Structures are given as C-alpha cells and as structure tokens.
Amino acid sequence: MLNKAVREREEAAQKAKAAAAEAAAQKQREEKERQAAAAEAELQAKNAEAARKAEEARQKADQKTREKAAAEAEAARAAAEKQAQAAETARKQADAQASQEAACKDQQTRLDAILAKGSEGSGVDDLKSFSASLTCDRLRPVAAAALDRFNAEVAGRAATQPNSYALVRAAQTELIRLGCFNGRPDGALASTQTALKRYLTIIGLPADNLAVTQDSITEMTKHTTQVCPPECQSGETLKGGSCVADATPTETPSRKGRPQERQEKEQARRDKPAKEKQQTRARPSVVGGGVSMTGIGF
Fold first, then answer.
1. Given 97, 131, 158, which residue is the final one in a domain?
2. Is the domain of 125 the same as that of 228?
3. Once rounded to an integer, what is the mean pLDDT over residues 43-53?
4. Buried b (16+ CB within 10 A) or exposed e, 123-132
5. If we measure between CA atoms, which residue out of 114, 138, 108, 117 comes closest to residue 128?
6. Residue 291 confidence class, pLDDT cut points 50, 70, 90
C-alpha cells in the first residue's frame, strides 16, 4: 500500500512536472508565435511603408512627367502661336508693301502727268494738291523739289511781265543812273512811268506806251552817261548842269557894282553856248531803226 501511494505520488509529481514542462513549452511556443507575428507585422509594416514611399515616389515622378509634358506642350503651343503671329505680321507687311507699291505706282503716274503739264496754268495748284494727298514716301522729296521749281518758274515769268515789281525796280535803278528819276527804287509804277515818259521824250521816242518791259530796260542800259538834266525846284536855276538857288533881291551887288539881276543875266549869257552844245550832244540820232545817244553829259 505504501509503495502504491509512493508510486502514485511519484506519478503525480511526474505528471505535474510534465504538465509544468508542457506549460512552459506552450508558453515558449506562444512567445515564439507572438514574436513571429510581431516580426511579420513589422515586416508587413515596413513593406507597406516601402510600398507607400515607392507609390509616392512613383506619383511624384508621374507628376513631374505630367508637368514636364504640360510645359513642353505649352512651350510648343507658345512657339506655334508666335510663329503664327510672325507669319501673320509678315503677311500683313507684305500686303502693306504691295498696297504701298501700288499706291506709289499710281501716284508716280499722276506726278508724271502734272510735271508733263508744267508750271503754267493750274500746274502749281495741282502739284500742291497732289503733295497734300501724297502717301508714297519716296515721292515726297521729288514732289517738293518739283514744287520749288514750279514756284521759281512762276516767279520768273511774273518778274518778266510788263510792269512787274522786279522790272519796275530795275527800271527805277536805270532811270536814277540816267538822271531821270529822283526817288528811290521802291517798285512804285506811277512815279516810274512819269520818269519813263521824261526819259522817252528827251531821247526822242514816243511816250504814249509807258509799260515797263525788259526791252525798255535793255534800251536804258545802252546809255553810258546821264540823259535827263536835273529838274530844278521853284527858286532854283540850272547853271552848269546843277541847280543853283536864285538870288534874293536884297543880296549885295557884285564887287564891280552892278546890280544882282544884271550879274545873273550876264552869267546866263556866258552859260548859253555851253548849254546849246550839251543839248546838241544829247539830241538822239536814229541809226538802223534804233535810237542811240552820243556823248550825253549833264
């Protein structure tokens, strides 16, 4: 009985020891399983994080790719638009040049017609009107030069017209030189015609036509000496080619005792031969249908 009890105790102890060992082994297995699960979870977490980062990197790369593609597309679009604008600008410039060239050709034709017509008549007005509407730049200096030439031609013709201001002034200058005009060259026609009439009368030409012409001025230039004697004012007497003031009644008699009146008569008598000689020299002679003066001097 004792042995049986001992055996039972031993068996019970062995069973308890086996149970404890089993429990420890179980616990060990569970710990290993826990550690394995934790390691697996950690591995999965790492893998997930790596996958997340990889996805994020991929997405970033895709974003950069998309942005690069968008930038390239925008650059291509801008370049195409710029090229299109340049082409449009070139087209417009070509159209403008073609239009300008057509306008220049048309205006050149009009200018040639005006120049062919010349400065007479409405030539100056036509050229002024044309210049005001001119759009062809290369014709502007041509039109300006032509207008200056037209104006000069008109002025030249006007200057050669009878009684023109230029001819009247030239005639006055000659009449002053010839002693027939006492004024100054001011272009006044009336006083000039008076002097011209005196000049024509003295040289023996008809004085019914008092127009101042280039021919009449040319005729004046042929005289190398004074033609008209001085015109003495009231109270003056022509003596020796000069006007001398008349003596007053109260003047002192001459040193020989003769009265002043007798002295003046004596002086006039002495001057008479010289005057007659001068008038004879100043008398015009008709040679070959023209008038010439021989040795006029006053």
1. 158
2. no
3. 90
4. bbebbeebbe
5. 114
6. very low
**Last residue within a domain, chosen from 142, 158, 174:** 158
Confidence of residue 259 (pLDDT cuts 50, 70, 90): low
Residue 290's pLDDT is 38
Answer yes or no: is 27 within a domain: no
Counting the structural domains of the chain, the total is: 2
* Crossing angle between the packed helical segments 123-132 and 140-160, to the nearest 10 degrees: 160
Instruction: Report yes or no: 230 and 298 within 8 Å, Cβ to Cβ.
Output: yes
Domain that holds residue 153: 108-158
Q: Are residues 192 and 283 in the same domain?
A: yes
Inter-residue contact 212 to 162 (CB < 8 Å) = yes
> Which residues neighbour 203 within 8 Å (Cβ) at sequence distance 6 or greater?
227, 284, 291, 293
Residues 204 and 127 in one domain: no
pLDDT single digits (tens) 116-170:
989 888 889 999 999 999 999 999 999 999 999 989 988 888 888 899 999 999 9
Residue 283, pLDDT score: 42
Based on the fold, state whether residues 172 and 135 are members of the same structural domain.
no
In this structure, the answer to whether residues 252 and 200 fall within a common structural domain is yes
Rounded average pLDDT over 78-97: 92
Residue 66 lies in a domain: no
- Name the average pLDDT for the chain: 82
pLDDT in tens, 92-106: 999 988 988 999 999
| Residue 22 exposed, middle or buried by CB count within 10 Å (0-12, 13-18, 19+) | exposed
